[in-house]
Protein backbone atom coordinates (compact mmCIF):
# COMPACT_ATOMS: atom_id res chain seq x y z
CA UNK A 1 0.00 0.00 0.00
CA UNK A 2 1.39 3.39 -1.01
CA UNK A 3 0.14 6.90 -0.31
CA UNK A 4 -2.17 8.14 -3.06
CA UNK A 5 -3.02 4.66 -4.35
CA UNK A 6 -6.54 3.28 -4.19
CA UNK A 7 -7.39 0.07 -2.36
CA UNK A 8 -9.61 -2.76 -3.55
CA UNK A 9 -9.66 -5.47 -0.86
CA UNK A 10 -13.04 -6.02 0.79
CA UNK A 11 -12.30 -6.79 4.44
CA UNK A 12 -13.58 -6.22 7.96
CA UNK A 13 -17.01 -6.62 9.55
CA UNK A 14 -19.82 -5.91 7.05
CA UNK A 15 -21.75 -3.78 9.56
CA UNK A 16 -18.87 -1.30 9.73
CA UNK A 17 -17.88 -1.37 6.05
CA UNK A 18 -18.43 1.65 3.81
CA UNK A 19 -20.64 1.34 0.71
CA UNK A 20 -17.67 1.50 -1.65
CA UNK A 21 -15.99 -1.40 0.16
CA UNK A 22 -18.91 -3.83 0.01
CA UNK A 23 -19.54 -2.80 -3.61
CA UNK A 24 -16.11 -4.05 -4.62
CA UNK A 25 -15.06 -0.64 -5.93
CA UNK A 26 -11.67 1.02 -5.60
CA UNK A 27 -11.61 3.12 -2.46
CA UNK A 28 -9.40 5.46 -0.45
CA UNK A 29 -8.47 4.64 3.14
CA UNK A 30 -9.37 7.90 4.94
CA UNK A 31 -12.90 8.08 3.54
CA UNK A 32 -13.56 4.46 4.54
CA UNK A 33 -12.19 5.14 8.03
CA UNK A 34 -14.55 8.10 8.46
CA UNK A 35 -17.54 5.90 7.60
CA UNK A 36 -16.45 3.20 10.07
CA UNK A 37 -15.88 5.84 12.76
CA UNK A 38 -19.39 7.12 12.09
CA UNK A 39 -20.76 3.62 12.69
CA UNK A 40 -18.76 3.33 15.91
CA UNK A 41 -19.89 6.76 17.12
CA UNK A 42 -23.51 5.82 16.43
CA UNK A 43 -23.07 2.54 18.35
CA UNK A 44 -21.50 4.31 21.33
CA UNK A 45 -24.25 6.90 21.56
CA UNK A 46 -27.22 4.70 20.67
CA UNK A 47 -26.26 1.26 21.96
CA UNK A 48 -27.03 -0.33 18.61
CA UNK A 49 -25.60 -0.40 15.09
CA UNK A 50 -27.00 1.92 12.41
CA UNK A 51 -26.90 -0.84 9.80
CA UNK A 52 -27.86 -4.30 10.98
CA UNK A 53 -29.69 -7.25 9.47
CA UNK A 54 -29.34 -11.01 9.77
CA UNK A 55 -29.73 -11.25 6.01
CA UNK A 56 -26.46 -10.10 4.42
CA UNK A 57 -28.02 -8.93 1.10
CA UNK A 58 -30.51 -6.82 3.06
CA UNK A 59 -27.67 -5.46 5.22
CA UNK A 60 -25.71 -4.45 2.11
CA UNK A 61 -28.83 -2.80 0.68
CA UNK A 62 -29.18 -0.66 3.81
CA UNK A 63 -25.50 0.32 3.76
CA UNK A 64 -25.47 1.19 0.05
CA UNK A 65 -28.62 3.27 0.47
CA UNK A 66 -27.51 4.89 3.72
CA UNK A 67 -30.73 3.70 5.34
CA UNK A 68 -30.74 4.20 9.11
CA UNK A 69 -32.58 6.19 11.78
CA UNK A 70 -31.35 8.63 14.42
CA UNK A 71 -32.89 8.20 17.90
CA UNK A 72 -34.60 11.28 19.30
CA UNK A 73 -32.46 11.28 22.46
CA UNK A 74 -29.30 12.28 20.57
CA UNK A 75 -27.98 15.79 21.11
CA UNK A 76 -28.24 18.32 18.27
CA UNK A 77 -24.47 18.20 17.80
CA UNK A 78 -24.30 14.43 17.36
CA UNK A 79 -27.39 14.49 15.13
CA UNK A 80 -25.49 16.89 12.89
CA UNK A 81 -22.15 15.05 12.96
CA UNK A 82 -23.21 11.43 12.36
CA UNK A 83 -25.10 12.06 9.07
CA UNK A 84 -22.08 13.97 7.77
CA UNK A 85 -19.89 10.93 8.44
CA UNK A 86 -22.35 8.36 7.08
CA UNK A 87 -22.64 9.86 3.60
CA UNK A 88 -22.84 7.22 0.85
CA UNK A 89 -20.81 9.30 -1.61
CA UNK A 90 -17.21 9.23 -0.28
CA UNK A 91 -16.41 12.51 -2.05
CA UNK A 92 -19.12 14.29 -0.04
CA UNK A 93 -18.25 12.54 3.23
CA UNK A 94 -16.80 14.59 6.08
CA UNK A 95 -13.01 14.52 6.38
CA UNK A 96 -11.06 13.76 9.55
CA UNK A 97 -9.82 17.39 9.94
CA UNK A 98 -13.42 18.59 9.56
CA UNK A 99 -14.57 16.13 12.24
CA UNK A 100 -11.94 17.43 14.64
CA UNK A 101 -13.20 20.98 14.10
CA UNK A 102 -16.87 20.06 14.55
CA UNK A 103 -18.51 21.70 17.61
CA UNK A 104 -19.59 18.31 19.02
CA UNK A 105 -16.00 17.01 18.91
CA UNK A 106 -14.57 20.22 20.36
CA UNK A 107 -16.97 20.35 23.32
CA UNK A 108 -15.20 19.35 26.55
CA UNK A 109 -12.24 18.05 24.53
CA UNK A 110 -9.41 16.91 26.87
CA UNK A 111 -6.22 18.86 26.21
CA UNK A 112 -4.19 15.71 25.65
CA UNK A 113 -6.40 14.83 22.67
CA UNK A 114 -5.82 18.18 20.96
CA UNK A 115 -3.66 18.40 17.85
CA UNK A 116 -0.05 19.44 18.67
CA UNK A 117 1.03 22.83 17.28
CA UNK A 118 2.71 22.91 13.83
CA UNK A 119 6.16 23.77 15.21
CA UNK A 120 6.13 20.54 17.23
CA UNK A 121 5.34 18.57 14.10
CA UNK A 122 8.36 20.10 12.36
CA UNK A 123 10.61 19.08 15.23
CA UNK A 124 9.52 15.47 14.73
CA UNK A 125 11.72 15.30 11.61
CA UNK A 126 14.85 15.50 13.79
CA UNK A 127 16.00 12.45 15.75
CA UNK A 128 15.82 13.16 19.48
CA UNK A 129 18.87 11.62 21.16
CA UNK A 130 17.27 11.22 24.59
CA UNK A 131 14.25 9.42 23.19
CA UNK A 132 16.56 7.35 21.00
CA UNK A 133 18.41 6.21 24.12
CA UNK A 134 15.11 5.32 25.80
CA UNK A 135 14.21 3.03 22.91
CA UNK A 136 17.71 1.51 22.81
CA UNK A 137 17.35 0.63 26.49
CA UNK A 138 14.29 -1.41 25.54
CA UNK A 139 16.64 -3.72 23.64
CA UNK A 140 16.73 -2.26 20.13
CA UNK A 141 19.91 -1.90 18.07
CA UNK A 142 20.98 1.73 17.67
CA UNK A 143 22.21 1.53 14.06
CA UNK A 144 19.14 -0.35 12.87
CA UNK A 145 16.84 2.06 14.71
CA UNK A 146 18.51 5.18 13.29
CA UNK A 147 18.44 3.73 9.77
CA UNK A 148 14.76 2.87 10.13
CA UNK A 149 13.93 6.38 11.35
CA UNK A 150 15.82 8.05 8.51
CA UNK A 151 14.17 5.83 5.89
CA UNK A 152 10.72 6.14 7.49
CA UNK A 153 10.46 2.37 7.99
CA UNK A 154 7.71 1.23 10.34
CA UNK A 155 8.72 -1.44 12.83
CA UNK A 156 8.58 -2.05 16.59
CA UNK A 157 11.50 0.28 17.28
CA UNK A 158 10.21 3.24 15.29
CA UNK A 159 6.71 2.83 16.75
CA UNK A 160 8.19 2.99 20.27
CA UNK A 161 10.25 6.07 19.29
CA UNK A 162 7.29 8.00 17.88
CA UNK A 163 5.05 7.12 20.82
CA UNK A 164 7.63 8.60 23.19
CA UNK A 165 8.19 11.58 20.89
CA UNK A 166 4.47 12.30 20.73
CA UNK A 167 4.27 12.15 24.51
CA UNK A 168 7.21 14.55 24.83
CA UNK A 169 5.60 17.12 22.52
CA UNK A 170 2.31 16.96 24.37
CA UNK A 171 4.00 17.39 27.74
CA UNK A 172 6.30 20.22 26.67
CA UNK A 173 3.50 22.11 24.90
CA UNK A 174 1.02 21.69 27.75
CA UNK A 175 -1.28 19.44 25.74
CA UNK A 176 -0.85 16.56 28.20
CA UNK A 177 -3.16 17.78 30.93
CA UNK A 178 -3.34 16.86 34.59
CA UNK A 179 -6.39 14.71 33.88
CA UNK A 180 -4.24 12.36 31.78
CA UNK A 181 -1.62 12.12 34.52
CA UNK A 182 -4.33 11.39 37.09
CA UNK A 183 -5.83 8.67 34.92
CA UNK A 184 -2.41 7.01 34.57
CA UNK A 185 -1.82 7.11 38.32
CA UNK A 186 -5.28 5.78 39.13
CA UNK A 187 -4.76 2.95 36.65
CA UNK A 188 -1.42 2.11 38.28
CA UNK A 189 -2.99 2.12 41.74
CA UNK A 190 -5.66 -0.33 40.63
CA UNK A 191 -2.97 -2.73 39.38
CA UNK A 192 -0.54 -2.19 42.31
CA UNK A 193 -2.71 -1.03 45.25
CA UNK A 194 0.11 -1.39 47.82
CA UNK A 195 2.86 0.33 45.83
CA UNK A 196 3.44 4.11 45.67
CA UNK A 197 3.43 5.80 42.29
CA UNK A 198 7.06 6.52 41.35
CA UNK A 199 7.61 9.48 38.99
CA UNK A 200 10.03 9.13 36.10
CA UNK A 201 13.42 10.64 36.96
CA UNK A 202 16.42 11.56 34.86
CA UNK A 203 14.84 12.45 31.54
CA UNK A 204 12.40 14.93 30.02
CA UNK A 205 9.48 12.55 29.57
CA UNK A 206 7.57 13.86 32.59
CA UNK A 207 4.12 12.32 32.91
CA UNK A 208 5.07 9.13 31.09
CA UNK A 209 4.86 5.87 33.05
CA UNK A 210 8.28 4.70 34.24
CA UNK A 211 9.25 1.48 32.46
CA UNK A 212 11.03 -0.05 35.42
CA UNK A 213 8.12 0.65 37.75
CA UNK A 214 5.65 -0.90 35.32
CA UNK A 215 7.88 -3.93 34.81
CA UNK A 216 8.33 -3.28 31.10
CA UNK A 217 12.10 -2.86 31.01
CA UNK A 218 12.66 -6.55 31.65
CA UNK A 219 10.39 -7.50 28.76
CA UNK A 220 12.55 -5.65 26.23
CA UNK A 221 11.72 -6.95 22.73
CA UNK A 222 8.70 -8.91 23.96
CA UNK A 223 6.82 -5.60 24.15
CA UNK A 224 5.29 -5.53 20.67
CA UNK A 225 3.42 -2.20 20.95
CA UNK A 226 0.49 -3.75 19.15
CA UNK A 227 2.57 -4.88 16.18
CA UNK A 228 3.12 -8.61 15.74
UniProtKB/TrEMBL annotation:
<dbReference type="Pfam" id="PF00069">
    <property type="entry name" value="Pkinase"/>
</dbReference>
<dbReference type="InterPro" id="IPR011009">
    <property type="entry name" value="Kinase-like_dom_sf"/>
</dbReference>
<feature type="domain" description="Protein kinase">
    <location>
        <begin position="1"/>
        <end position="105"/>
    </location>
</feature>
<feature type="domain" description="UBA">
    <location>
        <begin position="126"/>
        <end position="166"/>
    </location>
</feature>
<dbReference type="InterPro" id="IPR000719">
    <property type="entry name" value="Prot_kinase_dom"/>
</dbReference>
<keyword id="KW-0547">Nucleotide-binding</keyword>
<keyword id="KW-0067">ATP-binding</keyword>
<dbReference type="Pfam" id="PF00627">
    <property type="entry name" value="UBA"/>
</dbReference>
<keyword id="KW-0418">Kinase</keyword>
<keyword id="KW-0723">Serine/threonine-protein kinase</keyword>
<keyword id="KW-0808">Transferase</keyword>
<dbReference type="GO" id="GO:0006970">
    <property type="term" value="P:response to osmotic stress"/>
</dbReference>
<dbReference type="GO" id="GO:0005524">
    <property type="term" value="F:ATP binding"/>
</dbReference>
<protein>
    <recommendedName>
        <fullName>non-specific serine/threonine protein kinase</fullName>
        <ecNumber>2.7.11.1</ecNumber>
    </recommendedName>
</protein>
<dbReference type="GO" id="GO:0004674">
    <property type="term" value="F:protein serine/threonine kinase activity"/>
</dbReference>
<dbReference type="InterPro" id="IPR015940">
    <property type="entry name" value="UBA"/>
</dbReference>
<dbReference type="InterPro" id="IPR009060">
    <property type="entry name" value="UBA-like_sf"/>
</dbReference>
